[in-house]
């Protein structure tokens, strides 16, 4: 008997499935420990010798948490990250140091691994779920940001969990509806990016439960109008928005001045408010669109001119394979009801990058990368089915 026939026989028999899943869980757990060994070391020694890493925005979160514990309200930029700051304050209230947010982020990575397994399983069978979960925990960027007092790792994990909860709510209803509502709202409060997530999920529900095209367009337009109205009331956006400033300067990568587009000078527009930004885009649509395309392309590429050449090559090869597999997975599963939800959430985050900027370390693309991995995991499983000559329908769909 050939090796492929033996493998096919193992994967087609139900009695072997628990063994396969158990081995996969153990493998994924080992990869999680390997990728996060420094973070786990800090947790297990109580952060007595190692501490959570601090980023540029970390003082905003720690000072905001201290303000809440002192009975003061959040101000300025702090209000845009209220969910994360509340979590930080709760940790401090329990008597732990702020470093323990790392333990929370690691816990949510484990939950996200379970959620993405189920999303992959829904899309293409349990092997698709296993490969998607593997890709999530193997992602070095997620492990890196797990060790920081920053919102990115927690938000990334919560996006996966929110999508899973919403899909379950549409399938089974019951308690999944309040659970998904709480999860989505909590995710939206972690960072401003979450507001775009909230908008995309509202649009998804509109298109799922409203059958007429006119009704869909009207309700979606109302949701978008309310969203822009809410954003415009944020003091930092209403008066001097860094997004609008970077638009007029032609910024491609935030914090990197060597890559800029020469944008037209508009003397008739004063300040950098949201209204000023809208007027500038209306006045110069072609250049604004060109800048948006640059934002998306650079962010999705994830390579940077200031990275070492070998690192850029490694990143380029990795993301190229991931994206090619994702496209193949989407083509093979576009009729699945989960596929439109995944695509809409991915598109919502990409649209946000288009109107803002590419990040210095490609953090924005991390937020939706696990959802791309669901499609990639499905493609890997499909290739495995083909190579092993697995014929059972429930293994392939």
What does this structure look like?
The protein has 397 residues and is mainly alpha-helical. It has 21 helices and two strands. It has a two-stranded antiparallel ribbon. Strand 1 and strand 2 form a beta hairpin. The longest helix is centred in the last third of the chain and has 25 residues, at 309-333. Mean pLDDT is 87; it is low at 236-240 and 392-397.
Number of strands: 2
Contiguous uncertain segments of 5+ residues = 236-240, 392-397
Number of helices: 21
Helical content class? over 70%
Mean pLDDT level? 87
Largest sheet: 2 strands, antiparallel
How many separate domains?
1
Termini distance?
A: 27 Å
In oligomeric terms, what are we looking at?
single chain
Main sheet: strand order? 1-2
Rg: 22 Å
Describe the secondary structure blueprint for this structure.
Blueprint: H1 3-12, H2 17-35, H3 37-44, H4 58-69, H5 82-93, H6 101-124, H7 126-138, H8 140-146, H9 152-172, H10 176-188, H11 193-209, H12 213-232, H13 235-238, H14 242-249, E1 251-253, E2 256-260, H15 274-283, H16 285-301, H17 309-333, H18 338-355, H19 363-366, H20 369-388, H21 393-396
Antiparallel strand pairs: 1-2
Helix pairs in contact: 2-7, 4-5, 6-7, 6-9, 6-20, 7-20, 8-9, 9-10, 10-11, 11-12, 11-18, 14-15, 15-16, 16-18, 17-20, 18-20
A few lines on this structure:
With 397 residues, this protein is mainly α. Helices cover 72% and strands 2% of the residues.
